[in-house]
Every structure is written in structure tokens, then in C-alpha cells.
Amino acid sequence: MMTPITITPEAAKAIKDKAAAKDGAVGLRLTIKSTGCSGHSYQMDYAMSESAEDDVIEAGGAKLFIPKINSWMLFGMEIGYEEGQMGSGFTFTNPNETGRCGCGESFSIERSE
Description:
Layout: E1 5-7, H1 9-20, E2 27-35, E3 39-47, E4 54-59, E5 62-67, H2 68-74, E6 77-84, E7 87-93, E8 99-100, E9 107-108
Parallel strand pairs: 1-6, 2-5
Antiparallel strand pairs: 2-3, 4-5, 6-7, 8-9
């Protein structure tokens, strides 16, 4: 059985550290924005409060908030975090993606009924 969303230990630490660095943040919020050549992109922001309209994923002491309206697009996704010489950031491995643009900044998902 596929888990709704998996957060790697590295991503959990990054979420926890980033939330702790922002006064008043209770975690991070992952949203899906309409943008780019393929239609959607992932965006991480500070979550300043909990909302009944969010699903909450907890891992390693970190809280990730996801608007329920976006949850269907993310089922089975793994969120990671990579650090490298040229920068660091969250990675998103989403089995629901049906395509990505050439630059890798946006993705598409087709909803099946």
C-alpha cells in the first residue's frame, strides 16, 4: 500500500530547522501553484498557523501542512532534501506527475475520474 506522503529524515530536519528560524512559524506549508510551461510547481512557505483546510504530515518532529485541495496531486510522493556545492533544496518525487517541462521547474498531472 502506498503511503500518502513520505518525508525523508533529511527533509524532516530541514523543515524543522527552517520553521525554527522564522519567528512564529509552526512548520512549513507545501502548496501547488499554477505556473510554468507544464502547468504546476511546488512551493514551500512558512506556516504561521494551523488551518482546518490543511492536511498535516508529521515526521521527525517536523510539521508539513498541505492544503486539502492539493492532497490528491501528492498521494504517494516522497519529499527529500539535498545539499550540494551549488545549492540546496527540497526534492519532490511524485508518482502522479504525467510530465515535466524541459527546465524541470514545473510539472503536469492529469486527474483521472
